Structures are given as structure tokens and as C-alpha cells.
Amino acid sequence: MAPPGRYVLPGWLGVPDTRPGEGPLAGLEAALAEVAARRGAGWVALCGVDQPALTPAYWAALWAARAVPGTLAVQALDPQGRAQPLAALYHTALRLRLTAMLDGGERRLRLAAPPEATATVAGLPGGVFSNVNRPEDLAALERQLGMGRPGEG
């Protein structure tokens, strides 16, 4: 979710915020509505732009866990056992719940899906949860992943 024209990538669908400034729960509501309108029932992968270490294996692990009957959300557990709602899968069936939450003033993403409808995935490498907000965060992640920038020894 971003202002129109920002983060434009070929082959990606940009979905504008329908509640600008209301945070990730509102962004998820807009994404679920867009997917439901275009494709009907389905899943949305949600992540922050500051989470560059999420890998195809990460998403594959979450995707496999969605098959449990009654599951409406899939969240990874970090190495400390905390659910990660900002790098998760959500089903379009949650849209009306999110709309009601937002209309009632709720903004906490961790409440998007009821616990009994949320599957969790443990055992993923801790590095995938890296949050990169500053150049030094990116440098630390690159060191952790054994990557160097061009010209660095």
C-alpha cells in the first residue's frame, strides 16, 4: 500500500490506500478488498517494505500452513516465539472483520484474524525477520547474509 505511483514494479498491482495514514491494518483491508473484487476468495501476502530478507522459502512455508481447515491467516513465529503479523498471509474472508475493526477505531494488525483461525509456522531462520529502516540496518543485514556492496573488501 502506497500513494499512487510509488513503488511501481512491472507485473505488480498497485493498490491505493483507502484509509491513508491509518496503518497496516487499513492497508490489509484495501488489499483484501482489491483481491476479492478481482479474483473472488483468495489469499494476500502482506509484508512491510522494510523487510527485504523474506525469502521464497519463507513464503512457501506459510503457504503450506494455510491448508489447515478453518485457517484465515498464517503468521511466522520469530526465534522468540512471537507471531509476525506484518509478514503473513491473510484470506479475503477477513475483509468484513477488518472493516468493522477499523470503523470501530481499532488499528492493531495483530488482531486482524481470530487466534483460532490463525496458523503459525515456527523454525524459520531468524535472519528473515530483519527490519531495515536505516543504511546501517542494511549494512548489518548484508554482513549477516555474507553479502558485500560493490567496492567493499
UniProtKB/TrEMBL annotation:
GO molecular function: nucleotidyltransferase activity
Keywords recorded for this protein, A-Z: Transferase
Domain MobA-like NTP transferase: 11-110
Domain of life: Bacteria
Classification via Pfam families: NTP_transf_3
Classification via InterPro entries: MobA-like_NTP_Trfase (IPR025877), Nucleotide-diphossugar_trans (IPR029044)
Protein name (Swiss-Prot/TrEMBL): Molybdopterin-guanine dinucleotide biosynthesis protein A, putative
Species, as recorded: Deinococcus gobiensis (strain DSM 21396 / JCM 16679 / CGMCC 1.7299 / I-0)
Taxonomic lineage of the native organism: Bacteria, Thermotogati, Deinococcota, Deinococci, Deinococcales
